[in-house]
């Protein structure tokens, strides 16, 4: 009986420890685009899924995926579920969906808002001419610990600085409105590196901070946008924390409740038997291993 009790305590303790740490990622999956000859979704989708499973993402935000791609992800990733609305309306167009391990987390609340002056309806970002832009959020509960937190995932405009600056202001405002002072994480493709005004708005807000600066040796060997190998720029890092060349467009931000232990850009490749290294997406995913601190 004594050995049984000790074993049960050790098991319970291991569950609690595992619940205190997690791997969070952001991944622009690249939409299923017929122009991507040589990197078609039908070929690369299995390798996207393998990457996610091997690197053991607990939850992650996505960008650009179309409804059919999300269906493929559900099939290829049976351990995960997701939530996300389409940026053009109900299940229409690209998504900024959030995936999570269904055995580890449950969704308590969920929602979406558009990165625009009219955030409650599908709409373009201020002066941006291209597309509707959306931010998806969920409130997750860790089943083992009972702790809950919010995750937000977004994809910013790629043309207009004003739209991106206003998007950051809106994200901060909505985060306070939805999450209050609760633990929260914001991930996404912000179409700009940490030196841009819209990224500084978030990092210097006193609400969220860029996890890149949490770690002594961030693993960032390239721009996070690879353009299928056309743009793989080596980064020149000073003091491990200042980037002087190359753009990290994909970011993970934490509130004070979390601390990043590692920060890495995953440059995994695949081959279709032709001895040519291909990337699963035109963006590299960014993953952070993190722990609770409050």
TrEMBL record:
* UniProt key word Nuclease: yes
Q: Where is the signal peptide, in residue numbers?
A: 1-19
Alphabetic keyword roster: Endonuclease, Exonuclease, Hydrolase, Nuclease, Signal
A GO molecular-function annotation: 3'-5'-RNA exonuclease activity
Q: Which Pfam families does this UniProt record tie to the protein?
A: Exo_endo_phos
Q: For the Endonuclease/exonuclease/phosphatase domain, which residue ranges apply?
A: 25-283
InterPro entries xrefs: CCR4/nocturin_mRNA_transcr, Endo/exonu/phosph_ase_sf, Endo/exonuclease/phosphatase
Query: This chain belongs to which protein, by name?
Result: Endonuclease/Exonuclease/phosphatase family protein
């Amino acid at each position: 009986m004594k050995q049984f009790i000790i074993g049960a305590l050790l098991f319970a303790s291991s569950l609690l420890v595992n619940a205190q740490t997690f791997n969070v990622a952001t991944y622009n999956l690249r939409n299923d685009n017929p122009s991507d000859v040589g990197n078609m979704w039908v070929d690369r989708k299995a390798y996207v899924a393998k990457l996610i499973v091997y690197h053991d993402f607990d939850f992650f935000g996505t960008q650009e995926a179309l409804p059919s791609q999300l269906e493929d992800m559900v099939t290829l990733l049976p351990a995960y579920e997701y939530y996300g609305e389409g940026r053009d309306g109900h299940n229409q167009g690209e998504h900024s969906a959030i995936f999570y391990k269904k055995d580890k987390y449950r969704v308590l609340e969920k929602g979406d808002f558009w990165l625009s002056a009219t955030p409650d309806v599908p709409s373009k970002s201020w002066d941006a001419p291209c597309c509707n832009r959306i931010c998806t959020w969920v409130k997750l509960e860790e089943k083992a610990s009972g702790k809950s937190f919010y995750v937000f995932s977004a994809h910013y405009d790629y043309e207009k600085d004003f739209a991106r600056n206003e998007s950051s202001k809106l994200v901060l405002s909505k985060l306070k409105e939805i999450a209050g002072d609760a633990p929260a994480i914001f991930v996404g493709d912000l179409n700009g590196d940490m030196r841009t005004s819209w990224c500084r708005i978030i990092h210097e807000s006193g609400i969220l901070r860029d996890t890149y600066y949490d770690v002594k040796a961030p693993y960032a060997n390239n721009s996070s946008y690879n353009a299928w190998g056309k743009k793989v720029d080596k980064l020149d890092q000073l003091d491990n924390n200042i980037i002087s060349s190359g753009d990290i467009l994909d970011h993970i931000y934490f509130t004070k409740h979390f601390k990043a232990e590692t920060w890495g850009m995953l440059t995994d490749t695949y081959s279709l038997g032709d001895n040519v290294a291909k990337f699963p997406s035109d963006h590299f995913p960014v993953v952070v291993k993190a722990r609770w601190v409050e």
